[in-house]
Design goal:
It is built from 9 helices and 10 strands. The strands form 3 sheets. Strands 2-1-3-4-8 form a 5-stranded mixed beta sheet, sandwiched between helices. A 3-stranded parallel beta sheet has the order 5-6-7. The two termini are 31 Å apart. The relative contact order is 0.17.
Amino acid sequence: MRYIKLIACRVMLREVSLVTATSDTIVDVTWLPWGLHDKIGELNAYLQREIDSVNSGLDPHTTYPPAGRDFEAIVCGYGLCSNGTVGLKSTKYPLVIPRAHDCITLFLGSKEKYRKEFDENPGTYWYSAGWAESGSELSKEELRNSQYLLYVEQYGEELAEEMADMFSDMMVHYSQLGLIKWPEFAEVPFMKDADVYARQYASEQSWDFKEFKGDSTLMRDMLGGNWDDERFIVIKPGYEPAPSYDDAILKSVES
């Protein structure tokens, strides 16, 4: 039986819980707050702190280890995620990262389906049940103002104004909300609630609404240790992930 450490965004709690409940792998999970990828550098800092803490054997969120066994690897439940995983280092365990741009790939089931849906459905604001539970959806003006406050803290008022305007321009290009549903959750009450919430938010933003069938395969293989090179990158100690700027998404480089 395999034993891994998973560090993941809370937006995936429902999906990860389903997979771990039916997996032969022992998965020790640490949840990070939703929305860290929206703050430049913050996701990377959170991940590195948690990795360092696990390596030290002193992480308060981690069980060390059942039956005297050690982790086979630390799995990051993130993709490239606005470069949030770039430069991460582990001194003790291999780091496993899915070859994905973000969590949407994990919900859809493959980077190929991700590319297909993005090409065929431009202007889609992607959504899952976890977004309804973990995030707070705001109006366009509220979103713009919240981003402005974040940018002020990091870049000062003058640059923050320009960056917030750019963010607002990006939001204008959305025309559709796409709700990803795993078949396993079809009759579960929380998924029905998420559907109502997503439709309401789409209406408030004057967007169309569309359902997309998700697939648990990629997440099951991520947590089951089926880490083929086509879909996952395994970063050994002494190396770190870097963007590859091609279909592989990530590559391993020496630290």
